Structures are given as C-alpha cells and as structure tokens.
Amino acid sequence: MTGELHCHSRFSDGTMSVDDLVFYAKKIGLGFLSITDHDTLAGVTRAAVVGRRYGVEVIAGCEISCYDTRRSRQAHILCYLPEKPDRLQGMLGRILESRQKAGLEMVERLRRIYPITNDYFLRYSAGSQAIYKVHLMHALMDQGYTDRIYGELYHELFDKGGRCYIPLEYPDVRDAVDLIHSAGGLAVLAHPGTYDSYELLAELLAEGRLDGVEANYPSATQQDREILEQLLEGSSVIRTGGTDFHGFYSRMPRPLGTCVTERDQLEKLYACKENTKAKA
C-alpha cells in the first residue's frame, strides 16, 4: 500500500480543505497521508479525526520554509511526527508573521496598480494562516487581469526585482532541522532539485542531521534522480515521495497521489521515530 506525504490544504496555499484531502486520498486508494502545510500544524488534529473516519492513516507533518545561508538560496524541510509540537511554534510563528507582513505590503503595492479593494484581495486568504502570492493572483484572475496563477504576470509582479516583490525572513536550515529533532520529530529534505539543494543535502547527510529525503516528486528530472542516487549510495536514510499537491494552485497538473511513498519507507519512518524516542 502506498501513501502521499506532501500536500497542502487551505491552511496554507492549497485550495482543498483538510476533510476533502483525506476523503480523496481514500477515494484514490491511498493508505496513508500527511498534510504538510507551510509553517503550520493547524490542520493536523482535524486530519487525524477525518482519517479515523475514512480509514486513512494520517501522519502529522508540516513543511518548514528555510534558508541555505551558505549558498543564499531557499530550502524546504518536511517535519514529520513531532513529539512535542509546541517547541516548533516559536519558529513557525515568526515565519508566518514575516509572510503575513510581506503579504499585506504586496496588497498595498497591488492596490496602487489595480483598482481592487483591500478586502477583495484578502478574501482569498481567508482560512489560511498567512497571505500567499497565489491568493493575490487568484484575485487578479477573477478580476480578469490574467488567466493563470503562474504566468507572465506572476513573474512580472513577484519575481525578485518585480513590482511587488517583498523578501521574506526564513530561519537557517540547520536551525530548523535541529529544532525539529528537539521537538522529537523527523527531518526530511523536500524536493532537492527545486532549489538545487544537492550540496546542502551532501553536507546534512555527512553531519548526520537528516532522517530522510524526498526522492519521488513531480518536478524531478532524470538528471535529478541520478544525482540523488549518487548522493544516497550506501545511505540508509528514508526515501519519501509526495506530490507537493496544492489543488488549483499547483504549478503543473498533478493530482493527489501522483508521487507516492512506498509502505516500506513509511515503516522506516516509524522505526526511525522509535529509535529517536529510545535515545531521548
């Protein structure tokens, strides 16, 4: 049996509710699911309740937005099964505060360009823990200024140097990994090819900091897979799979369950968790 260990709900920048994500995971035959919203565990309790209702095994998780300080680029760390999630809340809260502050500034800049009210922009982030660029693009779509989320207008507005670009403050990736472990959780490097995180991956593996790496994800090329195989040769770290599903806000067509985690890797996840508890 396979499962999905990387998807997003309305609590961050996805378009589906937690209930719908769990229901459709069951509908397509997935045995387990982790809703890994950005920088929040807000949907974890609800997902567990709905999972019991539908017979889907739910793994508590979130995706932490980090910064590879040595290379001045982003990196994302998936956190699974934190034993003491309260220890994560300070860092997660600071990231969300930075994101919300940037989002409000983006709204102000957009209002100088388009005749759209503040309330209209903000209605699209209702229910989310912060304002995301996809929410603002959705508002512009509904007003007829573009016909897609990720297109020319998105890049014009929000790419570095764009008219509404606001940099965000992220914690260093090593600080995030260490905090996950202090919370009794497991740290998995997400989609290493997305931000060219291979040097970072090699360092974290050598330092013994990582519990796993997301090896199966939609944007991975054959070259990505070959590089990853070379880096993981002889390593016993967990190899997860996930679609990075955002529903309507996904960057490319990729239904839930496009990329999955095999059951044996989930068992390794649980075994790693038990070993962590035994050492504590």
What does this structure look like?
With 280 residues, this protein is an alpha/beta fold. It is built from 10 helices and 9 strands. The chain has helices at residues 18-27, 44-54, 89-113, 118-122, 133-142, 152-158, 173-182, 198-206, 222-232, 263-279, and strands at residues 2-7, 32-35, 57-58, 61-68, 73-80, 186-189, 212-216, 238-241, 261-262. Strands 4-5-6-7-8 form a 5-stranded mixed beta sheet. Strands 3-2-1-9 form a 4-stranded mixed beta sheet. α1 (18-27) packs parallel to α2. The radius of gyration is 19 Å and the shape is globular. The model has no long low-confidence stretch (mean pLDDT 97).
Briefly, what is this?
By secondary structure, the chain is α/β, with parallel strands linked by helices. It contains ten helices and nine strands. The two termini are 31 Å apart.
Topology:
Blueprint (H helix, E strand, L loop, with lengths): L1 E6 L10 H10 L4 E4 L8 H11 L2 E2 L2 E8 L4 E8 L8 H25 L4 H5 L10 H10 L9 H7 L14 H10 L3 E4 L8 H9 L5 E5 L5 H11 L5 E4 L19 E2 H17 L1
Parallel strand pairs: 1-2, 2-3, 6-7, 7-8
Antiparallel strand pairs: 1-9, 4-5, 5-6
Helix pairs in contact: 1-2
How many H/I helices? 10
Distance between the termini: 31 Å
Beta-strand percentage range? 15-25%
Residues in helices, as a percent range: 40-55%
H and E string: EHEHEEEHHHHHEHEHEEH
> How would you sum up the major sheet?
5 strands, mixed
